[in-house]
Design brief:
This protein has 174 residues and is an all-alpha fold. It contains one helix and no strands. The protein has one helix spanning 2-173. It is rod-shaped. The N and C termini lie far apart (225 Å).
Length: 174
């Protein structure tokens, strides 16, 4: 019988252990649920604080910044447009001054070019006169040489003619 008693005691002990396990399981589940609730409450409270203390003021600030942001670019663009127009005016003024300077430069260049060509032409004419003068001198010298040669050539003829007359006269006299 001792084995029956011990089996019955073992059954009873098993039931007690099982009851204790069920109690422990219940306590753990309750603790887990409580912790989940606490955790959810903590997160919920944290989210509420985040929304109340950070997100709502940030939204208000953002809305005011949006209004400023919408107006600021308009003002900035208006000032930029004024600046661009002043730059365009400056560029136009510069272009007109540049055109005037270009026109003045071209006129001055044309005058210098004409003056250069006039001087160059004058130099060519003077060189031509100089060359003509040199040719004239050479021609005069040539003519002088020709006259001198002719005189030299004609002098013996005169002498020959005179001598011939002289000898002819002499022979006739004899």
């Amino acid at each position: 019988m001792p084995t029956i008693v011990s089996i019955s005691k073992s059954k009873h002990a098993f039931k007690d252990v099982q009851a204790n396990v069920d109690i422990i399981r219940f306590v753990v589940e309750m603790d887990w649920k409580q912790r989940q609730n606490d955790w959810q409450n903590t997160i919920t409270n944290g989210i509420k604080l985040l929304v109340k203390d950070i997100l709502i003021p940030l939204d208000r600030k953002t809305q005011s910044n949006v209004v400023n942001f919408e107006n600021a670019p308009k003002e900035e663009m208006h000032e930029d447009l004024k600046y661009v127009k002043s730059l365009e005016k400056e560029v136009d003024d510069f272009q007109s001054r540049l055109e005037l300077e270009k026109t003045d430069f071209l006129k001055e260049y044309d005058l210098l070019l004409q003056e250069f060509f006039n001087k160059d032409l004058l130099c060519d004419i003077l060189l031509l006169f100089h060359d003509i003068d040199e040719y004239s001198k050479m021609a005069c010298n040539y003519l002088d040489k020709i006259e001198e040669c002719e005189r030299q050539l004609s002098f013996p003829r005169v002498i020959n003619q005179n001598m011939t007359k002289f000898y002819t006269t002499k022979e006739t006299l004899h």
